[in-house]
Each structure stands twice: as C-alpha cells, then as structure tokens.
C-alpha cells in the first residue's frame, strides 16, 4: 500500500467516525490522528460511552 492509498483509507475512516459521532469536530479527530486511545478518550469525553463500547464501534468501522 502506498502513501496515497493509506491516506485515502484514513480519510474514509475519519468520515465514518464523524458520521458515527457527529459532535466531534475536525480538529478533535485530527488531534487524535493515528492514536486510537486519544480518539477513544475524546469520544468518551463528549458522549460518556464506555471505552469498550467505543473501541468496538471503531473496530466495526474499520471492517
């Protein structure tokens, strides 16, 4: 996979994350870029969901 393909996959994943958790801003997602734990923490802060539930949803988005 080349850089363009990896970037396209990341952009698609980001779009899915923002669809799932609509209150997340582009800046919040960008700050967590590449760091799953940071992204989970930001989602948890806004939505109050459990880490496990968020991790499962993120894994489902990747599949």
Write structural notes for this entry.
This protein has 63 residues and is mainly alpha-helical. Helix content is 76%, strand content 0%. The longest helix has 18 residues, at 3-20. The two termini are 17 Å apart.
Quick overview:
The protein is mainly α and about 60 residues long. The chain has four helices and no strands.
Total separate domains: 1
Q: What kind of assembly state do the chains in view correspond to?
A: single chain
Bulk shape: globular
Please name the CATH architecture. Orthogonal Bundle
Give the helix/strand layout.
Blueprint: H1 3-20, H2 26-31, H3 36-47, H4 51-62
List keywords for this structure.
63 residues; mainly alpha; Protein Yjbj, Chain: A; globular
């Amino acid at each position: 996979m080349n850089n363009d393909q990896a970037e396209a996959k990341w952009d698609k994943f980001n779009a899915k994350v923002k669809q799932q958790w609509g209150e997340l801003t582009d800046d919040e997602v960008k700050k967590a870029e590449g760091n799953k734990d940071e992204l989970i923490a930001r989602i948890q802060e806004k939505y109050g969901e459990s880490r496990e539930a968020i991790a499962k949803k993120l894994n489902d988005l990747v599949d």
